[in-house]
Amino acid sequence: MSTKETERRITSASMTPTLSSVKDSPAVERALGRSKLYLLISWSLLFPEEDEFLDYLQSGEFVEDGRSAVEGMGGGLAGLGGEKATRKLTSIGTHLDHIEGWISSECINWKLPDLQDEHRRVFSNVITLDCPPYETLFGNDHVFGQAHVMGDISGFYKAFGLELSRDIHERMDHLSVELEFMHFMAYKESYARCHDGEQKTQIVVDAQKKFLKNHIGRWVPLFCRMLTKKADYGLFRMMADLTADLLEFDVACLGVNPQPYSETDYRPATFSAPEGQSYACGAQDKGNELSMLLDEVGAQSYMDDKVKDGEGEGEEDTGPSGTA
Q: Would you say domain 3-140+174-270 falls under CATH 1.10.3480?
C-alpha cells in the first residue's frame, strides 16, 4: 500500500471506476462507496508533501467524490443497519457540507505550506500524545502486546498480497494505512461480487468484519474523540467526525460488535522519549522506534556491545524508514 499509488487512484478517473460501470447492485455500489470514503479519509490524514491533495480540496473534487460515495452507499440498507446506517449517512453528508464551506471560506486561498502547518498544529512533528494516529499506542501497556498487534495487522495485509511500499513514510499501524487497507478490501468486495462468486466474496467480507472488530473498530473511535479535542476546528476536526460516523455505518451494516477502547486504555508511556533525549520530525521511523523498543526489553545494551566489538559495522540497512 503506497501513498503515491493512493494519490494516483484518487486523481485519475481511469483508475477508479464509477458506480455505474459495474453491475447495478446495491451491495456493489455500497462497497464502492465505502471504498471511496475510506480512501478520501486515508489520504486526508497523511502529511501533505506535495500539492495534489490541496488541489483536490480546492477544486471541489474531494467533496464531490465524497457525496457520490454517500449516494452509492444508501441503497438496500433495509436489514443492514437500517435506521442507524441511514442516520450515519446523513451525518456524513453534513460533514461534507461543512468541509465544502471551510474550503470556500478559508482553504481556497491556501498554499501548500498552510496545509502543512495545519497538519503540524494538530499532529506535531513528533508522535503527538494528544491524538497519536497509531493503533499500538492504544490498549497495549507493554512492547510485547504491541508486537502482537503489529503481527496481526501484518497478517491481514499479507493474506491479501499487500505490503508497505518502500516509498511510504508511515508504520503499518498508522490510521491512514489501516484505512487504505479497508479501501482496498471494500474495492475487492465490489469486484468479487461482480466476478468471483459468493464464496470468494464472503471471504473478503469476513476479513473486513474481522479487521473492523479487532482493529479499527476498537481504537479509532477513541482516536476520533481525541482528534476532535486536539484539532478543535478546521479540516481535521471535521475529518474526525466523518471518520467516526463512517465506522459506525460499517459497524451497523457489517453486523459486528467491536469493543472500543476507553480513555483508560490509552497508555502512551512506552513511546515516551528517554530522559535527556528528544526526537525531531520522523520520530515514528524505524530507527527511533526500534531504539525505544530495545530499551523496553533490555536489549539495547547488547546491541551497543556488538557495535563496540566491531560487529555490524559497514552493513547496509535495506529496510524501509520514513519521516513525517
A: yes
